[in-house]
Amino acid sequence: MNRSELVNQIKTKRSFLCVGLDTDLKKVPQHILNDEDPIFAFNKAIIDATADYCVSYKPNLAFYEAFGVKGLISFEKTIKYLKENYPNHFIVADAKRGDIGNTSAMYARTFFDEYDVDSLTVAPYMGEDSVTPFLGYKDKWVILLALTSNKGSHDFQLTEDKDGERLFEKVLRTSQQWGDKENMMYVVGATQGRMFEDIRKIVPDHFLLVPGVGAQGGSLEEVCKYGMNADCGLLVNSSRGIIYASNGEDFATVAAEKAKELQIQMDAELKKHGI
Amino acid sequence: MNRSELVNQIKTKRSFLCVGLDTDLKKVPQHILNDEDPIFAFNKAIIDATADYCVSYKPNLAFYEAFGVKGLISFEKTIKYLKENYPNHFIVADAKRGDIGNTSAMYARTFFDEYDVDSLTVAPYMGEDSVTPFLGYKDKWVILLALTSNKGSHDFQLTEDKDGERLFEKVLRTSQQWGDKENMMYVVGATQGRMFEDIRKIVPDHFLLVPGVGAQGGSLEEVCKYGMNADCGLLVNSSRGIIYASNGEDFATVAAEKAKELQIQMDAELKKHGI
């Protein structure tokens, strides 16, 4: 999916919600466990219930890999189901990969050629040649970690260099030599509040993938106030707050309600910004 | 495997070689492709041929994931084969994972409980809570990226903060509050030469996993000169230089010769250092 298609989806659906598919068999409703492939059954129900309210899905690879071969089959089925039934939803494979050039090239082939997802989260620590192998694919995106939502983001990402530039700012600035707003986004945690102002000074036009609303405590209003741009420029993710809102038989209905609540808030935010 | 067992293996076998299983079906000998599971068939032949000359194997997950479910089955079979037939070899899953706490916990469960490998490479960008979930497992290791072997290592890892401390040095220093020499190692590229001196000032006793000898141009002699400690403290990896030394029917024999060449050099280096 290219940038203008994504922006169109956001404007049409009045939503910039990304639903995180962090599917954990310890947390899904008991009755789902009777299914032959409970992970896929859960995902399918969540997707069918929430698709109207979101523009994107983000399966987190860790949750699939945890079940080895079976988990990977569930992941593949989920991607296939999305592509066949909801081809206008932007798929983020949240895998946080990044390795030396020939290895990153293997990961790129896997996620973009084999799974054919729209985007992949990538860690920047290893620098240019660990990121650029992901950038040669038409309408595919790198989503580079910049300022993450967790407590540990303070350990290294905020370290200032001699000129007062913080590491996440250096990542934002440097990586613009590798890709542009048509093939690169950045992960910025919703918990980072006013830091979005500093981020928008460096990447005014890029999309930001924003985890941390909900379970992690970030505020949607604050994210929009400081982070939204003329094309919206945000994909705000919620995982646990939607998919585990109920663990009864009504889990999909409740997930839809939670997604709709966010969509309504997002519609209001878009209007506030004249979008 | 714990630290003293690893040191014993090195002293007994007179080798600190780690063979990287970056198994790429585009590079394996043609005749292997006729096998039902060519990745595993190749690995098995390489392992049987080189086990006497090395103390460790390092499958790189990217190369297995590239083949989806089939690749993951080959990975699982390789780990099982190693554990059953060569239980004294230290297994590194080279996956460079690292995510927010609950996700890292999922990865830890996958690699340490399910696959039961000895160690996992982890990226430090997301800080403490992305790394510590991997540290609670008995005789299991985090191998944290510090100063990698690739060109892109210069982009961020060498950035100096206000006090002149470089990012990789901060990673080494800070992470010692999370783990110790019994459960944490560091990745330092063989291409980094005298930087090993600076690294040993911060982590004199830790093991270092050193990729980059061979195809990437690093020098074993230099690595040992500046990086070896009283317990050896090094696992030097070679992947392409061993496993693709021949792509004929003699590939395993030639891989064994290459591994043996390195083992002989390593024996000499150990003696030079009184080990």
From TrEMBL, chains A, B:
Q: Which UniProt keywords apply?
A: Decarboxylase, Lyase, Pyrimidine biosynthesis
EC supergroup of this enzyme: lyase
Superkingdom of origin organism: Bacteria
- Pathway named in the protein's UniProt entry: Pyrimidine metabolism; UMP biosynthesis via de novo pathway; UMP from orotate: step 2/2
Enzyme Commission code: 4.1.1.23
| Catalysed reactions, as listed in the record | orotidine 5'-phosphate + H(+) = UMP + CO2
What GO molecular function terms would the record report?
A: orotidine-5'-phosphate decarboxylase activity
Keyword Cell cycle appears in the UniProt entry: no
InterPro entries from the xrefs?
Aldolase_TIM, OMPdecase_type-2, OMPdeCOase_dom, RibuloseP-bd_barrel
A single GO BP term for this record reads: 'de novo' UMP biosynthetic process
CDD domains per the record?
OMP_decarboxylase_like (cd04725)
Which residues of this protein are catalytic? K96 (proton donor)
Cross-referenced Pfam families: OMPdecase (PF00215)
Presence of the UniProt keyword Cytoplasm in the record: no
- Residues in Orotidine 5'-phosphate decarboxylase domain copies: 16-255
Provide the family line: Belongs to the OMP decarboxylase family. Type 2 subfamily.
The name under which this protein is listed is: Orotidine 5'-phosphate decarboxylase
* Species of provenance: Leyella stercorea
